[in-house]
Amino acid sequence: MNKKILIDVIGLELIALVVIIGYKLSPMLLPKADITVQPDPVCNLQREACTVALPSGGNVTLSMGTRPIPLVKPFEIQVATSGFSPARVEVDFSGIEMNMGYNRPQLAARGEGSYAAEATLPVCITGSMDWQATVLVETGSERVAIPYRFSTGESH
Q1: 4 secondary structure, DSSP code
Q2: Alpha-carbon distance 143 to 23, whole Å?
Q3: What does R_g of the chain's alpha carbons equal in angstroms?
């Protein structure tokens, strides 16, 4: 009888531990932003760089170093900012219809308002894939998210 109670208590403690760890790690896995700015839906990252004006002033431009954006091959991501100096710039890649795992490179400063990093997108077994590349910019006082959508594979 006491052994069963002890096992139940340990099980409840393990469940509580998993919940606490999940809560603490959720900001890392699910990017939170103070402001989300929608990019121009006509802009296609497979063909061109896309620029967004921020409500607080300044611009953010996202460009992929290789077009079309390759799968399972490294490519450079470039973000240019003007009108402000971000404390941190990241790009979070996520599959629209399918979870493709955590893929959020932090971009390194490359000079006046220029940031870059190398990324690799995993291949989808269906051949084509819809993605969201969310640029996350920390300005010091707020975190801005800019979610761009694009497709890779046969249908892009």
Answers
A1: H
A2: 20
A3: 20
